[in-house]
Amino acid sequence: MKDLKMVINVLLVEKKDIILSIICGFIAGITAVALFSASGYLISKAALAPPIYTLMILVASVKMLGIISALSRYGERYYSHRGTFTMLSNLRVSFYEKIEPLAPGIFGKYRSGDLLARIVGDVEALQNFFLRVFYPPIVLLLIFFCTIFFTSFFSFEVALILFVGYLLTTVLVPSYFALRQRKIDRRVRGSRAELSTEVTEFLYGFRDLKIYQQLEGKQKQLSKSSAVYMQEQEQESVHNLFSQATNTFLSLMVTVCVLAIGAYLVVKGELDGIYLAMLVMVSLTVFENTTPMAIFPSHLQDSKLAASRLVSVVRNESAAIKMKKQENFQTDLSPKIEVKNVRFTYPNESRLTLENVSINLESGTKTAIVGPSGSGKSTLLQLMLNLYYVDEGEILLNNTPINDLLKESIWENTNVVLQTNHFFYGTIRDNLKLAKDGLNDYDMQEALAKVDLGHFKLDDSVLEKGENLSGGEKQRLAIARAMLKNAPLWLLDEPTSSVDALTEAEIYQHIFDIASEDTLVLVSHRLTGLEKMDQIIVMDHGKIIETGNFQSLMESKGYFYEMKMIEQNVFLGV
Question: Could you tell me which residue ranges the ABC transporter domain spans (predicted)?
């Protein structure tokens, strides 16, 4: 129930619809009981041939109760569904507001298919919380209280039977099935998340599966996950139907008991026979309202699991964010970056990615971070962007801890080119306009020319993820976007790995011209063109093993020197 507090807080925003739903539901239920009890009394009374005006009053009362019941039932449906849809809308907004500050680091903890299942499936599952869990028990309690109170005026024994029936059908039996429902719902939700993940990966990796002729194996795995999910759903449905059948059987047994006890009391003269049919009709009608309680455990458990899965995504991370009041990172000058004794491990991994890393990047300097694949270069760059939280140590921007700064303000003042850059379906112009507002066509065309994409037109189409662009074109388009942003901090991660050497040299020349006064950090495997760097940091296995400028590192003939010699032998043949 603790995780459901978030849902309840969002739900209580719509107090008006909640109150109106309860009022209309109560009126609909109590008038239905009154309608059938009046009908039973009318039948019994008519058999005694009373005056016509008596029958007319009873008939008019029955009609009036029928109209009130229908209108109030419509009102209940209207207000409850309006409240539900508004609640879902508010819940989505609330969840996205909590999850938005966690991106993109959150993608390192959760698979995309699992996140999709939570954001879509679990939020949708919570639509039943208000309709099936929150207000129906309140309405049912009010209806039974009034009905038992009314019945006690005619027969205390019958009122007692109704009370026992109420406890059975709304408390004891649902509680029993709720205990059995937990394990079933947990399996259903887990299998659905697994299926969503498998489907997402199947669609994303379809081309590679096709090329490597592994499509059939993946299809079998997907079919297996689908079959497991369907089997779990079937078991859940059987369980719910059995719960409903049990509740209905008990309700009918209560009515049979009312009839039997009522007949016995009539024979003993303790109950007027004219009221027997009325009491039986009251029992039949009031227990119709207990039908939703049969599936109450299923919806309650489903809501608990859905809320738990949603809250678990944002619980720890949101708490960490709210611990300190964050401020904006604003600077008109090139920032200074300090990394002090940073240790970092990716979520759910035991391998230490960075170990006791300390560097100092002065304002306006140009720094290259080099080293073999897996040495932690890209990770260090992402920590500077505050995409992840360090395990130990700290990173400072202009002497301010990076965790005390709003992530958005850091990104706003940074030109970023990562190894993988996303491109949206649209045009070249649409994708360049992401850099900043107010760009004109001339600025965008000039930026394209600087990265050797001058042959592109701004209206040329870009497919989803840039599927119609080559790897080098994607990188150059991302660099053009960074150039247009022109912020005082540059963080570049292998920005030209798919670009030929001549074009790479031209692009770097333009970057250095634009960033002449800016702080620039370049992660690269290539060791060419690093002579202009103020500082070169050499990393291996998450540690810094050498630091210096190009000349000093070559003179020391250490790790950097050996890598440079190997590069020359491989690519230059010397």
Answer: 337-566
With cut-offs at 50, 70 and 90, classify the pLDDT of residue 52.
confident
State how beta strands 414-417 and 400-401 pair. Answer: unpaired
Contact 289, 248 (CB under 8 A): no
CA distance 65 to 290: 21
pTM for the whole thing?
0.63
Phi, psi (deg, nearest 5) at residue 33: -65, -45
> In angstroms, what CA-CA distances link 415 with 8, 365, 484, 495?
42, 15, 9, 12
pLDDT tens digits for 265-315? Answer: 999 888 888 888 889 999 988 888 777 776 777 777 777 777 777 777 776
pLDDT beyond 60 at 316? no
Pairing label, strands 535-540, 519-524? unpaired
Q: What are the DSSP calls for 137-174, one per residue?
A: HHHHHHHHHHHHHHHTTT-HHHHHHHHHHHHIIIIIHH
Dihedral in degrees, nearest 10, Cα atoms 545, 549, 555, 559: 30
Q: Single out the residue of 256, 108, 125 nearest to residue 185, CA to CA.
A: 125
User: Mean pLDDT of all residues in the chain?
Assistant: 84
User: Which strands make up the sheet holding 489-493, listed edge to edge?
Assistant: 414-417, 489-493, 519-524, 366-370, 535-540, 543-548
How far is it, in rounded angstroms, from Cα 199 to Cα 190? Answer: 14
CA dist., res. 550 & res. 558, Å (int) = 12
Contacts of 338 (CB under 8 A, 6+ apart): 359, 360, 361, 395, 396, 399
Give the C-alpha separation, 41 to 58, whole Å.
9
Write the pLDDT tens digit of every residue in 477-527: 999 999 999 889 999 999 988 888 889 889 999 999 999 899 999 998 888
